[in-house]
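Hi R.,

As promised, here are both runs. First protein below:
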Amino acid sequence: MSGGWSWFVIALVVLNIGGCGWLLWWTAKRRPGDPKPEDTSHIWDGDITEYNKPLPRWWINLFWLTIAFAIGYLFWFPGMGAFAGYGRWSSAGEHAQDKARDDARLETTFAPFKGKPIDVLAADPTARKLGRSIFSNTCATCHGSSAQGAIGYPNLSDDIWHWGGTPDRVLETVLDGREGVMPEWGTVLTGMGGENAVDYVAAYVRTLSQPDAPLYNDYMAAQGKKLYEGICVACHGIDGKGNTTMGAPDLTDNYWLYGSSKQSLVQTIAKGRHGSMPAHRQLLGETRARLVAAYVWSLSHGEAPGAAPTNGPAAR
Protein backbone atom coordinates (compact mmCIF):
# COMPACT_ATOMS: atom_id res chain seq x y z
CA MET A 1 0.00 0.00 0.00
CA SER A 2 1.39 3.39 -1.00
CA GLY A 3 1.95 6.14 1.57
CA GLY A 4 -0.91 8.24 0.23
CA TRP A 5 -3.46 5.43 0.45
CA SER A 6 -2.15 4.48 3.88
CA TRP A 7 -2.76 7.95 5.26
CA PHE A 8 -6.16 8.05 3.56
CA VAL A 9 -7.20 4.84 5.36
CA ILE A 10 -5.80 6.11 8.67
CA ALA A 11 -7.76 9.35 8.30
CA LEU A 12 -10.97 7.42 7.61
CA VAL A 13 -10.46 5.17 10.65
CA VAL A 14 -9.69 8.09 12.98
CA LEU A 15 -12.61 10.10 11.62
CA ASN A 16 -15.05 7.22 12.13
CA ILE A 17 -13.88 6.42 15.65
CA GLY A 18 -13.81 10.09 16.61
CA GLY A 19 -17.25 10.61 15.10
CA CYS A 20 -18.68 7.70 17.06
CA GLY A 21 -17.14 9.03 20.27
CA TRP A 22 -18.46 12.55 19.68
CA LEU A 23 -21.97 11.26 18.85
CA LEU A 24 -22.00 9.11 21.98
CA TRP A 25 -20.83 12.00 24.16
CA TRP A 26 -23.31 14.47 22.65
CA THR A 27 -26.32 12.24 23.12
CA ALA A 28 -25.36 10.77 26.49
CA LYS A 29 -27.12 13.42 28.60
CA ARG A 30 -29.71 16.14 28.50
CA ARG A 31 -28.65 19.74 28.13
CA PRO A 32 -30.22 23.04 29.23
CA GLY A 33 -32.91 24.12 26.81
CA ASP A 34 -33.79 20.60 25.72
CA PRO A 35 -37.54 19.91 25.74
CA LYS A 36 -38.90 17.72 28.49
CA PRO A 37 -38.84 14.00 27.75
CA GLU A 38 -42.62 13.98 27.29
CA ASP A 39 -42.70 17.07 25.07
CA THR A 40 -42.18 15.25 21.79
CA SER A 41 -45.77 15.69 20.64
CA HIS A 42 -45.70 12.07 19.53
CA ILE A 43 -48.75 10.46 21.11
CA TRP A 44 -50.71 7.49 19.82
CA ASP A 45 -54.06 6.07 20.94
CA GLY A 46 -54.43 8.79 23.50
CA ASP A 47 -51.97 7.38 26.08
CA ILE A 48 -48.93 6.04 24.21
CA THR A 49 -46.29 8.76 24.34
CA GLU A 50 -42.83 8.82 22.75
CA TYR A 51 -40.18 10.13 25.15
CA ASN A 52 -36.84 11.69 24.37
CA LYS A 53 -34.42 10.38 27.01
CA PRO A 54 -30.70 9.56 26.99
CA LEU A 55 -29.67 5.93 26.93
CA PRO A 56 -29.18 4.17 30.28
CA ARG A 57 -25.70 4.68 31.74
CA TRP A 58 -24.79 0.99 31.55
CA TRP A 59 -25.66 0.95 27.84
CA ILE A 60 -23.54 4.05 27.17
CA ASN A 61 -20.62 2.53 29.07
CA LEU A 62 -20.83 -0.55 26.86
CA PHE A 63 -20.50 1.68 23.80
CA TRP A 64 -17.42 3.36 25.31
CA LEU A 65 -15.93 -0.08 25.99
CA THR A 66 -16.59 -1.01 22.37
CA ILE A 67 -14.72 2.05 21.15
CA ALA A 68 -11.83 1.31 23.54
CA PHE A 69 -11.71 -2.26 22.27
CA ALA A 70 -11.62 -1.01 18.65
CA ILE A 71 -8.68 1.28 19.43
CA GLY A 72 -6.81 -1.51 21.19
CA TYR A 73 -7.55 -3.87 18.29
CA LEU A 74 -6.14 -1.38 15.78
CA PHE A 75 -2.96 -1.03 17.84
CA TRP A 76 -2.42 -4.80 18.01
CA PHE A 77 -3.67 -5.91 14.59
CA PRO A 78 -3.27 -4.30 11.15
CA GLY A 79 -6.04 -1.93 10.15
CA MET A 80 -4.50 1.53 10.23
CA GLY A 81 -3.22 1.77 6.68
CA ALA A 82 0.27 0.32 6.31
CA PHE A 83 0.74 0.04 10.09
CA ALA A 84 1.29 -3.68 10.75
CA GLY A 85 0.20 -3.56 14.38
CA TYR A 86 2.30 -4.33 17.43
CA GLY A 87 1.22 -7.97 17.32
CA ARG A 88 2.73 -8.33 13.82
CA TRP A 89 -0.16 -10.55 12.78
CA SER A 90 -0.89 -11.11 9.10
CA SER A 91 -3.06 -13.49 7.11
CA ALA A 92 0.05 -14.60 5.22
CA GLY A 93 1.81 -15.40 8.48
CA GLU A 94 -1.24 -17.26 9.77
CA HIS A 95 -1.35 -19.27 6.54
CA ALA A 96 2.37 -20.02 6.80
CA GLN A 97 1.94 -21.32 10.36
CA ASP A 98 -1.02 -23.49 9.40
CA LYS A 99 0.85 -24.81 6.36
CA ALA A 100 3.94 -25.58 8.42
CA ARG A 101 1.84 -27.47 10.95
CA ASP A 102 0.03 -29.44 8.23
CA ASP A 103 3.28 -30.11 6.38
CA ALA A 104 4.80 -31.52 9.56
CA ARG A 105 1.83 -33.83 9.98
CA LEU A 106 2.06 -34.93 6.34
CA GLU A 107 5.79 -35.45 6.71
CA THR A 108 5.13 -37.86 9.56
CA THR A 109 2.52 -39.70 7.50
CA PHE A 110 4.72 -40.03 4.42
CA ALA A 111 8.04 -40.59 6.20
CA PRO A 112 7.90 -44.44 5.94
CA PHE A 113 7.78 -44.17 2.14
CA LYS A 114 10.52 -41.58 1.63
CA GLY A 115 13.06 -42.51 -1.03
CA LYS A 116 11.64 -45.99 -1.72
CA PRO A 117 11.67 -47.27 -5.32
CA ILE A 118 8.44 -47.03 -7.27
CA ASP A 119 8.05 -50.76 -7.82
CA VAL A 120 8.56 -51.41 -4.10
CA LEU A 121 5.90 -48.83 -3.20
CA ALA A 122 3.56 -50.38 -5.76
CA ALA A 123 3.71 -53.64 -3.78
CA ASP A 124 2.64 -51.88 -0.55
CA PRO A 125 -1.18 -51.64 -0.17
CA THR A 126 -0.89 -48.61 2.12
CA ALA A 127 1.36 -46.81 -0.32
CA ARG A 128 -0.98 -47.56 -3.20
CA LYS A 129 -3.96 -46.30 -1.18
CA LEU A 130 -2.17 -43.04 -0.41
CA GLY A 131 -1.06 -42.75 -4.04
CA ARG A 132 -4.62 -43.23 -5.24
CA SER A 133 -5.83 -40.50 -2.87
CA ILE A 134 -3.16 -38.11 -4.17
CA PHE A 135 -4.06 -39.07 -7.75
CA SER A 136 -7.74 -38.32 -7.13
CA ASN A 137 -6.94 -34.89 -5.69
CA THR A 138 -4.28 -33.90 -8.22
CA CYS A 139 -4.34 -35.93 -11.42
CA ALA A 140 -7.95 -36.99 -11.96
CA THR A 141 -8.86 -33.60 -13.44
CA CYS A 142 -7.03 -34.50 -16.65
CA HIS A 143 -6.69 -38.29 -16.56
CA GLY A 144 -10.08 -39.10 -15.01
CA SER A 145 -10.90 -40.80 -11.74
CA SER A 146 -10.24 -44.20 -13.33
CA ALA A 147 -7.00 -42.96 -14.95
CA GLN A 148 -8.29 -43.85 -18.42
CA GLY A 149 -7.76 -40.35 -19.76
CA ALA A 150 -9.59 -38.62 -22.60
CA ILE A 151 -8.82 -37.13 -26.00
CA GLY A 152 -5.48 -35.38 -25.54
CA TYR A 153 -4.93 -36.87 -22.06
CA PRO A 154 -3.17 -40.25 -21.86
CA ASN A 155 -4.78 -43.37 -20.48
CA LEU A 156 -2.60 -44.44 -17.55
CA SER A 157 -4.22 -47.81 -16.97
CA ASP A 158 -2.76 -49.60 -20.00
CA ASP A 159 0.76 -50.64 -20.98
CA ILE A 160 1.52 -47.86 -23.50
CA TRP A 161 3.91 -45.13 -22.39
CA HIS A 162 5.01 -42.37 -24.74
CA TRP A 163 7.80 -41.29 -22.39
CA GLY A 164 8.70 -44.75 -21.12
CA GLY A 165 7.02 -46.91 -18.52
CA THR A 166 9.92 -47.84 -16.26
CA PRO A 167 9.56 -46.78 -12.61
CA ASP A 168 12.23 -44.10 -12.96
CA ARG A 169 10.68 -42.65 -16.13
CA VAL A 170 7.22 -42.52 -14.60
CA LEU A 171 8.60 -40.75 -11.52
CA GLU A 172 10.51 -38.33 -13.72
CA THR A 173 7.30 -37.51 -15.59
CA VAL A 174 5.40 -36.78 -12.37
CA LEU A 175 8.19 -34.73 -10.81
CA ASP A 176 9.35 -32.64 -13.75
CA GLY A 177 6.49 -32.85 -16.23
CA ARG A 178 6.67 -33.33 -19.99
CA GLU A 179 6.28 -31.13 -23.07
CA GLY A 180 5.17 -33.17 -26.07
CA VAL A 181 5.39 -31.21 -29.30
CA MET A 182 4.32 -32.45 -32.72
CA PRO A 183 5.51 -29.80 -35.21
CA GLU A 184 3.23 -28.34 -37.84
CA TRP A 185 4.14 -30.09 -41.10
CA GLY A 186 1.31 -29.01 -43.41
CA THR A 187 3.25 -26.34 -45.31
CA VAL A 188 6.42 -28.45 -45.59
CA LEU A 189 4.59 -31.53 -46.86
CA THR A 190 2.55 -29.53 -49.34
CA GLY A 191 5.76 -28.12 -50.76
CA MET A 192 7.23 -31.61 -51.09
CA GLY A 193 4.26 -33.64 -52.32
CA GLY A 194 1.53 -31.29 -53.44
CA GLU A 195 -1.79 -30.30 -51.93
CA ASN A 196 -2.71 -33.88 -51.02
CA ALA A 197 0.58 -34.62 -49.25
CA VAL A 198 -0.92 -34.50 -45.75
CA ASP A 199 -3.64 -36.96 -46.76
CA TYR A 200 -0.95 -39.26 -48.22
CA VAL A 201 1.02 -39.30 -44.95
CA ALA A 202 -2.15 -39.85 -42.92
CA ALA A 203 -3.04 -42.81 -45.14
CA TYR A 204 0.40 -44.33 -44.67
CA VAL A 205 0.42 -43.76 -40.91
CA ARG A 206 -2.93 -45.55 -40.66
CA THR A 207 -1.35 -48.62 -42.30
CA LEU A 208 1.47 -48.85 -39.76
CA SER A 209 -0.90 -50.35 -37.22
CA GLN A 210 -2.63 -52.44 -39.91
CA PRO A 211 0.17 -53.85 -42.09
CA ASP A 212 -2.07 -56.55 -43.57
CA ALA A 213 -4.91 -54.21 -44.50
CA PRO A 214 -5.62 -53.89 -48.24
CA LEU A 215 -4.96 -50.16 -48.27
CA TYR A 216 -1.31 -50.74 -47.35
CA ASN A 217 -0.43 -51.00 -51.02
CA ASP A 218 -2.77 -48.38 -52.36
CA TYR A 219 -1.56 -45.27 -54.11
CA MET A 220 -2.10 -42.76 -51.27
CA ALA A 221 -0.26 -44.90 -48.70
CA ALA A 222 2.59 -45.50 -51.14
CA GLN A 223 3.00 -41.77 -51.71
CA GLY A 224 2.73 -41.13 -48.00
CA LYS A 225 5.47 -43.64 -47.24
CA LYS A 226 7.96 -41.61 -49.30
CA LEU A 227 7.03 -38.42 -47.48
CA TYR A 228 7.10 -40.16 -44.10
CA GLU A 229 10.61 -41.46 -44.73
CA GLY A 230 11.72 -37.96 -45.67
CA ILE A 231 10.43 -36.19 -42.56
CA CYS A 232 8.75 -38.29 -39.88
CA VAL A 233 11.45 -40.89 -39.36
CA ALA A 234 13.52 -38.39 -37.36
CA CYS A 235 11.17 -38.80 -34.40
CA HIS A 236 8.99 -41.84 -35.06
CA GLY A 237 11.66 -44.06 -36.65
CA ILE A 238 11.69 -45.89 -39.96
CA ASP A 239 9.42 -48.59 -38.52
CA GLY A 240 7.10 -46.12 -36.76
CA LYS A 241 7.93 -47.45 -33.28
CA GLY A 242 8.50 -43.96 -31.91
CA ASN A 243 11.06 -42.72 -29.42
CA THR A 244 10.32 -42.55 -25.67
CA THR A 245 13.31 -40.24 -25.15
CA MET A 246 11.47 -37.40 -26.85
CA GLY A 247 7.92 -38.62 -26.30
CA ALA A 248 7.35 -39.53 -29.97
CA PRO A 249 4.50 -42.07 -29.91
CA ASP A 250 4.57 -45.55 -31.39
CA LEU A 251 2.48 -45.41 -34.57
CA THR A 252 2.22 -49.18 -34.95
CA ASP A 253 -0.20 -49.78 -32.07
CA ASN A 254 -3.91 -49.05 -31.99
CA TYR A 255 -3.70 -46.16 -29.55
CA TRP A 256 -4.23 -42.59 -30.75
CA LEU A 257 -3.95 -39.85 -28.17
CA TYR A 258 -5.94 -37.35 -30.24
CA GLY A 259 -8.23 -39.85 -31.97
CA SER A 260 -7.79 -42.17 -34.95
CA SER A 261 -10.22 -40.58 -37.40
CA LYS A 262 -8.88 -39.27 -40.68
CA GLN A 263 -9.82 -35.73 -39.68
CA SER A 264 -7.89 -36.00 -36.42
CA LEU A 265 -4.79 -37.47 -38.09
CA VAL A 266 -4.80 -34.84 -40.82
CA GLN A 267 -5.08 -32.07 -38.21
CA THR A 268 -2.24 -33.58 -36.18
CA ILE A 269 0.05 -33.76 -39.18
CA ALA A 270 -0.91 -30.44 -40.73
CA LYS A 271 -1.33 -28.27 -37.64
CA GLY A 272 0.75 -30.13 -35.06
CA ARG A 273 -0.01 -30.80 -31.40
CA HIS A 274 1.32 -29.52 -28.12
CA GLY A 275 0.68 -31.61 -25.03
CA SER A 276 1.84 -30.44 -21.62
CA MET A 277 2.16 -32.48 -18.44
CA PRO A 278 2.77 -30.02 -15.56
CA ALA A 279 5.65 -30.58 -13.17
CA HIS A 280 4.52 -31.61 -9.69
CA ARG A 281 7.80 -31.47 -7.80
CA GLN A 282 6.96 -28.20 -6.06
CA LEU A 283 3.29 -29.01 -5.60
CA LEU A 284 3.62 -32.51 -4.17
CA GLY A 285 7.21 -32.90 -3.05
CA GLU A 286 9.26 -35.98 -3.92
CA THR A 287 7.68 -38.44 -1.48
CA ARG A 288 4.10 -37.77 -2.51
CA ALA A 289 5.19 -37.77 -6.15
CA ARG A 290 6.70 -41.21 -5.56
CA LEU A 291 3.45 -42.47 -4.06
CA VAL A 292 1.29 -41.26 -6.94
CA ALA A 293 3.84 -42.54 -9.47
CA ALA A 294 3.76 -45.93 -7.75
CA TYR A 295 -0.03 -45.99 -7.95
CA VAL A 296 0.01 -45.08 -11.64
CA TRP A 297 2.74 -47.64 -12.37
CA SER A 298 0.76 -50.33 -10.55
CA LEU A 299 -2.25 -49.80 -12.83
CA SER A 300 -0.41 -51.37 -15.74
CA HIS A 301 2.22 -53.46 -13.97
CA GLY A 302 0.25 -55.10 -11.20
CA GLU A 303 0.25 -54.49 -7.46
CA ALA A 304 3.56 -56.25 -6.88
CA PRO A 305 6.74 -56.61 -8.96
CA GLY A 306 6.19 -59.30 -11.54
CA ALA A 307 2.45 -59.51 -10.93
CA ALA A 308 -0.07 -59.49 -13.72
CA PRO A 309 -1.62 -56.11 -14.58
CA THR A 310 -4.62 -55.31 -12.44
CA ASN A 311 -6.63 -53.70 -15.21
CA GLY A 312 -5.17 -55.47 -18.23
CA PRO A 313 -3.95 -53.73 -21.37
CA ALA A 314 -6.28 -51.15 -22.78
CA ALA A 315 -6.01 -48.86 -25.78
CA ARG A 316 -4.21 -45.72 -24.66
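And here is the second one, sequence first, then its C-alpha coordinates:
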Amino acid sequence: MELLFFNRVPKVGSQTFMELLRRLAIRNQFETIRLAPADQQMLVSLVAAHTPPASYIKHVCYTNFTRFGYPSPIYVNVVRDPVERVISWYYYVRAPWYYVERKRAFPDLPLPDPSWLKKDFETCVLSGDRECRYIEGETHEGIGDHRRQTLFFCGHEPQCTPFNSVEALQRAKRVVEEQYAVVEELNTFNRINRNAFKPPVSEAVKQIVRANFTREIEFYEFCKQRLHIQLRALRDPALTLPTTTTLRRRRAQRRLGRL
Protein backbone atom coordinates (compact mmCIF):
# COMPACT_ATOMS: atom_id res chain seq x y z
CA MET A 1 0.00 0.00 0.00
CA GLU A 2 1.65 3.23 -1.19
CA LEU A 3 0.87 6.89 -1.90
CA LEU A 4 1.81 8.06 -5.40
CA PHE A 5 2.67 11.77 -5.84
CA PHE A 6 2.58 13.12 -9.42
CA ASN A 7 3.51 16.83 -9.23
CA ARG A 8 2.76 17.29 -12.91
CA VAL A 9 4.83 19.71 -14.99
CA PRO A 10 2.65 21.78 -17.37
CA LYS A 11 2.83 21.08 -21.13
CA VAL A 12 4.70 17.76 -20.93
CA GLY A 13 1.84 15.44 -21.83
CA SER A 14 0.68 15.09 -18.25
CA GLN A 15 -2.94 14.75 -19.42
CA THR A 16 -1.89 11.41 -20.90
CA PHE A 17 -0.24 10.38 -17.67
CA MET A 18 -3.33 11.44 -15.70
CA GLU A 19 -5.49 9.26 -17.94
CA LEU A 20 -3.11 6.36 -17.32
CA LEU A 21 -3.40 6.89 -13.55
CA ARG A 22 -7.19 7.09 -13.82
CA ARG A 23 -7.32 3.72 -15.57
CA LEU A 24 -4.89 2.21 -13.09
CA ALA A 25 -7.05 3.54 -10.25
CA ILE A 26 -10.01 1.59 -11.60
CA ARG A 27 -7.94 -1.55 -12.20
CA ASN A 28 -6.10 -1.49 -8.86
CA GLN A 29 -8.83 0.13 -6.73
CA PHE A 30 -7.00 3.24 -5.53
CA GLU A 31 -8.19 6.83 -5.39
CA THR A 32 -6.93 9.67 -7.56
CA ILE A 33 -6.55 12.77 -5.36
CA ARG A 34 -6.71 16.12 -7.16
CA LEU A 35 -6.43 18.84 -4.53
CA ALA A 36 -5.18 22.45 -4.53
CA PRO A 37 -2.91 23.07 -1.49
CA ALA A 38 -2.65 26.57 -0.06
CA ASP A 39 0.92 26.03 1.09
CA GLN A 40 3.44 23.26 1.70
CA GLN A 41 2.28 22.43 5.22
CA MET A 42 -1.35 22.20 4.16
CA LEU A 43 -0.38 20.17 1.09
CA VAL A 44 1.60 17.63 3.09
CA SER A 45 -1.00 17.20 5.83
CA LEU A 46 -3.80 17.04 3.28
CA VAL A 47 -2.15 14.38 1.15
CA ALA A 48 -0.88 12.41 4.14
CA ALA A 49 -4.41 12.28 5.57
CA HIS A 50 -5.51 9.96 2.75
CA THR A 51 -5.26 6.25 3.29
CA PRO A 52 -3.01 4.49 0.74
CA PRO A 53 -3.13 3.23 -1.91
CA ALA A 54 -3.86 6.63 -3.46
CA SER A 55 -2.37 9.18 -5.86
CA TYR A 56 -2.11 12.97 -5.78
CA ILE A 57 -1.94 14.95 -9.05
CA LYS A 58 -1.36 18.70 -9.26
CA HIS A 59 0.83 21.38 -10.85
CA VAL A 60 3.03 21.95 -7.81
CA CYS A 61 6.74 22.04 -7.05
CA TYR A 62 8.52 19.17 -5.33
CA THR A 63 7.58 19.22 -1.64
CA ASN A 64 9.69 17.61 1.06
CA PHE A 65 7.29 15.57 3.20
CA THR A 66 9.91 14.51 5.75
CA ARG A 67 10.56 18.17 6.59
CA PHE A 68 7.07 18.25 8.07
CA GLY A 69 7.35 14.93 9.84
CA TYR A 70 5.61 12.74 7.25
CA PRO A 71 6.99 9.82 5.22
CA SER A 72 7.78 10.55 1.58
CA PRO A 73 5.32 9.40 -1.07
CA ILE A 74 6.46 7.72 -4.28
CA TYR A 75 7.35 10.66 -6.51
CA VAL A 76 6.83 10.33 -10.29
CA ASN A 77 6.76 12.92 -13.07
CA VAL A 78 7.11 13.56 -16.80
CA VAL A 79 9.58 15.83 -18.62
CA ARG A 80 9.65 17.20 -22.15
CA ASP A 81 12.15 18.83 -24.46
CA PRO A 82 12.26 22.38 -22.98
CA VAL A 83 12.01 24.19 -26.31
CA GLU A 84 9.12 22.06 -27.54
CA ARG A 85 7.48 22.73 -24.20
CA VAL A 86 7.63 26.56 -24.45
CA ILE A 87 6.40 26.38 -28.04
CA SER A 88 3.47 24.27 -26.85
CA TRP A 89 2.70 26.79 -24.10
CA TYR A 90 2.98 29.71 -26.54
CA TYR A 91 0.20 28.30 -28.73
CA TYR A 92 -1.79 26.83 -25.85
CA VAL A 93 -2.51 30.28 -24.39
CA ARG A 94 -3.61 31.45 -27.86
CA ALA A 95 -5.95 28.54 -28.57
CA PRO A 96 -9.67 29.42 -28.79
CA TRP A 97 -10.73 26.98 -26.08
CA TYR A 98 -8.21 28.47 -23.63
CA TYR A 99 -9.99 31.84 -23.60
CA VAL A 100 -13.43 30.25 -23.62
CA GLU A 101 -12.49 28.41 -20.42
CA ARG A 102 -10.86 31.53 -18.94
CA LYS A 103 -13.91 33.66 -19.75
CA ARG A 104 -16.23 31.16 -18.11
CA ALA A 105 -14.07 31.11 -14.99
CA PHE A 106 -13.40 34.89 -14.96
CA PRO A 107 -16.23 36.77 -16.77
CA ASP A 108 -14.60 40.17 -16.19
CA LEU A 109 -11.34 39.14 -17.81
CA PRO A 110 -10.70 41.29 -20.93
CA LEU A 111 -10.14 39.55 -24.22
CA PRO A 112 -6.59 39.66 -25.61
CA ASP A 113 -5.46 41.88 -28.47
CA PRO A 114 -6.19 40.11 -31.82
CA SER A 115 -2.68 40.96 -33.06
CA TRP A 116 -1.24 39.13 -30.05
CA LEU A 117 -3.39 36.10 -30.76
CA LYS A 118 -2.31 35.97 -34.41
CA LYS A 119 1.42 36.42 -33.74
CA ASP A 120 3.29 33.21 -34.56
CA PHE A 121 6.20 31.89 -32.53
CA GLU A 122 8.80 32.31 -35.27
CA THR A 123 7.95 36.00 -35.71
CA CYS A 124 7.99 36.45 -31.96
CA VAL A 125 11.53 35.01 -31.70
CA LEU A 126 13.03 36.62 -34.80
CA SER A 127 11.65 40.08 -34.00
CA GLY A 128 13.11 39.98 -30.49
CA ASP A 129 9.67 40.28 -28.93
CA ARG A 130 9.84 40.49 -25.13
CA GLU A 131 7.58 37.46 -24.81
CA CYS A 132 10.07 35.26 -26.66
CA ARG A 133 13.34 36.49 -25.15
CA TYR A 134 14.32 33.86 -22.62
CA ILE A 135 16.80 35.69 -20.42
CA GLU A 136 18.90 33.84 -17.87
CA GLY A 137 18.17 34.73 -14.27
CA GLU A 138 14.63 36.00 -14.79
CA THR A 139 12.01 34.73 -12.39
CA HIS A 140 8.68 35.64 -13.94
CA GLU A 141 7.07 36.38 -17.28
CA GLY A 142 3.61 37.83 -18.01
CA ILE A 143 1.27 34.92 -18.66
CA GLY A 144 2.72 32.21 -16.46
CA ASP A 145 6.36 31.19 -16.65
CA HIS A 146 6.53 27.74 -18.18
CA ARG A 147 10.13 27.96 -19.30
CA ARG A 148 11.47 26.56 -16.01
CA GLN A 149 10.91 22.82 -15.98
CA THR A 150 13.59 22.43 -13.31
CA LEU A 151 11.42 24.45 -10.91
CA PHE A 152 9.03 21.54 -10.46
CA PHE A 153 11.89 19.34 -9.24
CA CYS A 154 14.05 21.91 -7.48
CA GLY A 155 11.32 22.91 -5.04
CA HIS A 156 9.82 25.99 -3.39
CA GLU A 157 13.05 27.69 -2.33
CA PRO A 158 13.99 31.12 -3.78
CA GLN A 159 17.11 29.59 -5.38
CA CYS A 160 14.82 27.54 -7.62
CA THR A 161 13.10 30.47 -9.33
CA PRO A 162 15.76 32.08 -11.60
CA PHE A 163 15.52 30.78 -15.15
CA ASN A 164 18.36 28.58 -16.45
CA SER A 165 20.42 28.89 -13.26
CA VAL A 166 23.20 26.52 -12.18
CA GLU A 167 21.82 26.17 -8.65
CA ALA A 168 18.30 25.31 -9.78
CA LEU A 169 19.76 22.72 -12.17
CA GLN A 170 21.92 21.05 -9.51
CA ARG A 171 19.16 21.02 -6.90
CA ALA A 172 16.69 19.57 -9.41
CA LYS A 173 19.12 16.81 -10.38
CA ARG A 174 19.75 15.96 -6.75
CA VAL A 175 16.03 15.76 -5.96
CA VAL A 176 15.40 13.50 -8.94
CA GLU A 177 18.24 11.19 -7.95
CA GLU A 178 17.24 10.98 -4.29
CA GLN A 179 13.44 11.24 -4.36
CA TYR A 180 11.90 10.22 -7.69
CA ALA A 181 11.09 6.65 -8.51
CA VAL A 182 10.44 7.45 -12.17
CA VAL A 183 10.70 10.58 -14.32
CA GLU A 184 9.12 9.63 -17.62
CA GLU A 185 9.88 11.34 -20.94
CA LEU A 186 7.03 12.58 -23.11
CA ASN A 187 8.07 10.82 -26.32
CA THR A 188 7.98 7.37 -24.69
CA PHE A 189 4.16 7.29 -24.63
CA ASN A 190 1.31 8.58 -26.83
CA ARG A 191 -0.27 11.98 -26.35
CA ILE A 192 -4.03 12.50 -26.01
CA ASN A 193 -4.08 16.31 -25.74
CA ARG A 194 -2.89 17.72 -29.07
CA ASN A 195 -3.26 21.34 -30.16
CA ALA A 196 -4.41 21.48 -33.77
CA PHE A 197 -3.79 25.24 -33.80
CA LYS A 198 -0.03 24.88 -33.29
CA PRO A 199 1.83 25.41 -36.61
CA PRO A 200 5.27 23.90 -37.25
CA VAL A 201 8.34 25.82 -36.08
CA SER A 202 11.56 25.68 -38.09
CA GLU A 203 14.64 24.00 -36.68
CA ALA A 204 16.59 27.23 -37.20
CA VAL A 205 14.29 29.14 -34.85
CA LYS A 206 14.36 26.30 -32.34
CA GLN A 207 18.16 26.46 -32.33
CA ILE A 208 18.02 30.18 -31.55
CA VAL A 209 15.82 29.47 -28.55
CA ARG A 210 17.90 26.48 -27.42
CA ALA A 211 20.92 28.74 -26.96
CA ASN A 212 19.13 30.26 -23.94
CA PHE A 213 17.95 26.94 -22.50
CA THR A 214 21.32 25.30 -21.89
CA ARG A 215 20.73 24.18 -18.29
CA GLU A 216 17.08 23.34 -18.81
CA ILE A 217 18.17 21.11 -21.70
CA GLU A 218 20.91 19.57 -19.54
CA PHE A 219 18.30 18.66 -16.93
CA TYR A 220 16.01 17.16 -19.56
CA GLU A 221 18.85 15.04 -20.98
CA PHE A 222 19.82 13.99 -17.45
CA CYS A 223 16.30 12.71 -16.81
CA LYS A 224 16.20 10.89 -20.15
CA GLN A 225 19.50 9.16 -19.48
CA ARG A 226 18.40 8.13 -16.00
CA LEU A 227 15.15 6.69 -17.38
CA HIS A 228 16.97 4.68 -20.03
CA ILE A 229 19.33 3.22 -17.42
CA GLN A 230 16.37 2.33 -15.22
CA LEU A 231 14.61 0.59 -18.10
CA ARG A 232 17.72 -1.46 -18.85
CA ALA A 233 17.98 -2.37 -15.17
CA LEU A 234 14.36 -3.52 -15.13
CA ARG A 235 15.08 -5.85 -18.05
CA ASP A 236 18.33 -7.11 -16.54
CA PRO A 237 18.25 -7.47 -12.72
CA ALA A 238 22.03 -7.91 -12.71
CA LEU A 239 22.47 -4.24 -13.60
CA THR A 240 22.67 -1.63 -10.84
CA LEU A 241 20.30 1.32 -10.80
CA PRO A 242 22.04 4.72 -10.83
CA THR A 243 20.65 5.76 -7.44
CA THR A 244 20.27 4.47 -3.91
CA THR A 245 16.66 3.61 -4.68
CA THR A 246 14.77 1.99 -1.84
CA LEU A 247 12.96 -1.32 -2.16
CA ARG A 248 9.67 0.59 -2.10
CA ARG A 249 10.64 2.67 -5.13
CA ARG A 250 11.95 -0.39 -6.95
CA ARG A 251 8.51 -1.95 -6.64
CA ALA A 252 6.95 1.20 -8.07
CA GLN A 253 9.38 1.16 -10.99
CA ARG A 254 8.58 -2.45 -11.77
CA ARG A 255 4.86 -1.73 -11.73
CA LEU A 256 5.30 1.23 -14.09
CA GLY A 257 7.70 -0.76 -16.24
CA ARG A 258 5.06 -3.36 -16.95
CA LEU A 259 2.57 -0.82 -18.32
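A quick note on the second one: The mean pLDDT is 79. Let me know what you think.

Best,
J.
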